[in-house]
Amino acid sequence: MDLKLASKVALITGSSRGIGLATAKAFAAEGCRLMLSARSAEQLAEAQAALRTSVAEVAAHAADVSEPDGAAGLVQAAFAAFGGIDVLVNNVGGSGGGARIADSTDDDWRGAMERNLIQTVRMMRLALPHMKGRTGASVINVASISGWSPQLAMSGQYGAAKAALIFDTERWALEFVPHGIRVNTVSPGSILVAGNGWDRYRLANHMSATVFRWAVSAPPRKWPMSSRSWRHRVATGSTAETYRSMGWNNPTRPWTGGHFSIWRGMSSGFRREPVRVR
């Protein structure tokens, strides 16, 4: 697949494993130049070495983006290596603390907001000067289905932080229109990629990838997110997905901002169905 991304610079936070590393591999397959980042220098070096077999230009910078100095250092490292940023993937996030109101503390809630929302705001603010004026520039914020579908999985503070991220991404899409930068969220559900929680579960239960896909699959479901439009994909790897369009914010760039929600997805490809507008 040629997505016209060759030589584009993609900065991906939390890219030493899991969804972040799988995202980096996808960008590498399109010929992008990559800036990887994670807190663990050892895991980051391993990811960098693995990706260099498929793409020539891969830089890495160990940083904790929840710390202002760490985030600033990462953005400066990307600029120093490649002269700018075309794609920013804010993949860092996570839960933590008590899962229920009775078990959680004020610090649990503050920490969830810092990990999932505030550090994303910080990264976007720092990257913006290096993304302005670059054709096709894009920000992708990794949220979660917990941010738009009430459930008892994860924690209340995690869902609240991801809901805020989804909401604010749509606001940021409007703010970034004058700069020619698209801003979107992707909301993963149960995603199987090497080394993540589902993969550890699969291996612990001696399940092949094929058996795992069958075990977690379910009939496709439609999740309408907007009265304007939604898109439904059928599995080769995912059982349901929706897309909320914000095409109205810039008629000349119809997908300036929006929200992808992937439920029980896999890291393989998808077969698309047409967009339906109501």
The end-to-end distance, rounded to whole angstroms, is 30 Å
Number of domains: 2
**What number is the mean pLDDT?**
77
CATH architect. name of the largest domain: 3-Layer(aba) Sandwich
Output the radius of gyration.
Answer: 18 Å
What is the helix/strand order? EHEHEHEHEHEHHEEEEEE
Helix content: 25-40%
User: Structural class of the secondary elements?
Assistant: alpha/beta
Which class of the largest domain in CATH terms?
Alpha Beta
Q: Provide the CATH topology of the largest domain.
A: Rossmann fold
Taken from the alpha-carbon principal axes, the silhouette is: globular
Tell me the number of strands. Answer: 12
Quickly count the helices: 7
**Proportion of residues in extended strands:** 15-25%
Segments where pLDDT lies below 50 for 5+ residues? 218-258, 261-278
Q: What spatial order of strands do you see in the largest sheet?
A: 3-2-1-4-5-6-10-9
